[in-house]
Design a protein that fits this description.
The protein has about 350 residues and is an all-alpha fold. Helix content is about 65%, strand content about 0%. It is built from 18 helices and two strands. The protein has a two-stranded antiparallel ribbon. Strand 1 and strand 2 form a beta hairpin. It is globular. It starts with a helix and ends with a helix. Bound molecules: geranylgeranyl diphosphate (GRG). The site of geranylgeranyl diphosphate (GRG) has 17 residues, from helix 4, helix 8, helix 9 and helix 13.
Length: about 350
């Protein structure tokens, strides 16, 4: 029987999912100059049935900041394009060498390696064009480009992937956390930031836009503190600093800085919990449900949370992170039940 969290999340996914699917379809119709086979490969991977966690986060963050999900659609599509690119490249023989993704043959299996590499490159570039031309207000577009570039760049997604592939990395918890905060966490945090940017209205200063265009390094999450004595772990000041946001200069900026910091606190914890659950699914899940090969991480002796902490402690930590993430949502001005249901679903998911 489905868990309550799964039902609540399914309702939000059914409400927002069709808008996401039609935006992805509409925003991936490349015209003159794009070879048909390349366009087919890009759309094959982008439109494949993924969970759409990142686009949903963008839309739900816009709602939580009292904005509209419609305004966040270019952000949602852009972040899914970056995600799809990263999956195409991650599946290549030179990286994870996977033949199954989202229940289908991987892009390089279906289209050949060269086309798959180019499809990833094309999706990455297209994401920035979308933000620059369609995310409004224009300041949100440029802040969005800057922050997505950081999330996808050498200090986050690409750097996390490079360290994960490095056989000489230290096999301990801080290393694992740092890899996943960059490889998985940064795209989750930036999805929320982009959704929030689409909701910014009113007299905010250029300094706020500059601040919002920086995605800081989240402070390492202390396992002991997250599991602590029930004290809320969110602090607007510490989290704003960790998110790369300076102390508010203008009075009107203050609420926005607090909202961005609260979303970042939520996103950093959600990202880590998402990864822990991904590791647990690799050990326990069923490949048909996941739509990808499972058991590969343990077979390859990969550094994972269950291998370092044990499966029970890893599961406990993921639950604590989700509880802490949800606490921070209380500070947001709009409806947050979407973000809450998504966080609870992350724990219950089986794919
Ligand atoms: C190649 C630059 C580069 C980066 C690759 C995304 C990534 C980094 C690796 C994928 C390997 C992996 C299993 C990462 C852990 C978490 C994760 C990102 C899972 C895939 O995301 P889901 O579960 O997938 O949201 P769907 O298909 O539902 O969108």
């Amino acid at each position: 029987m489905p868990e309550l969290a799964e039902i609540a999340f399914a309702e939000h996914a059914a409400r927002l999912g069709p808008q996401i699917e039609s935006a992805l379809d509409e925003m991936s119709r490349w015209g003159d100059g794009c070879p048909a086979r390349l366009a087919e490969a890009m759309r094959y991977s982008l439109l494949a049935p993924g969970k759409r966690v990142r686009p949903l986060l963008a839309l739900m963050a816009a709602e939580a900041c009292a904005g509209s999900p419609e305004a966040a659609l270019p952000a949602a599509a852009a972040v899914e394009m970056v995600h799809a690119y990263s999956l195409i490249h991650d599946d290549l023989p030179a990286m994870d060498d996977d033949d199954l993704r989202r229940g289908r043959p991987t892009c390089h299996v279906a289209f050949g390696e060269a086309t798959a590499i180019l499809a990833g490159d094309g999706l990455l570039a297209a994401a920035f064009e979308l933000l620059a031309t369609r995310l409004m207000p224009p300041e949100a577009g440029w802040a969005g480009c800057a922050v997505l570039a950081q999330a996808a760049g050498p200090c986050r997604l690409v750097g996390g992937q490079a360290d994960d592939l490095d056989p000489a990395r230290t096999p301990d918890l801080p290393t694992l956390q740092s890899i996943h905060q960059r490889k998985t966490g940064a795209l989750i945090r930036v999805s929320l930031r982009l959704g929030a940017l689409s909701a910014v209205r009113g007299p905010v200063s250029p300094a706020l836009w500059r601040a919002a265009s920086r995605l800081g390094s989240p402070t390492p999450i202390s396992v002991e503190k997250e599991a602590g004595d029930g004290e809320p772990s969110f602090s607007a000041e510490t989290d704003a600093h960790a998110a790369g946001l300076p102390p508010a200069s203008a009075e009107a900026d203050r609420p926005w800085l607090a909202h961005l910091a609260a979303l970042d606190h939520y996103g950093a914890r959600l990202g880590l919990a998402f990864q822990i659950v991904d590791d647990l699914l690799d050990v326990r899940g069923r490949s048909e449900a996941a739509g990808k090969r499972l058991g590969k991480d343990s077979a390859a002796g990969k550094l994972t949370y269950p291998s370092l902490l044990g499966t029970e402690a890893a599961e406990r930590l993921a639950r604590q992170l989700i509880d802490r993430a949800i606490e921070a949502l209380a500070l947001l001005p709009g409806p947050t039940h979407g973000l809450e249901s998504l966080a609870r679903y992350v724990i219950e998911r089986n794919r």
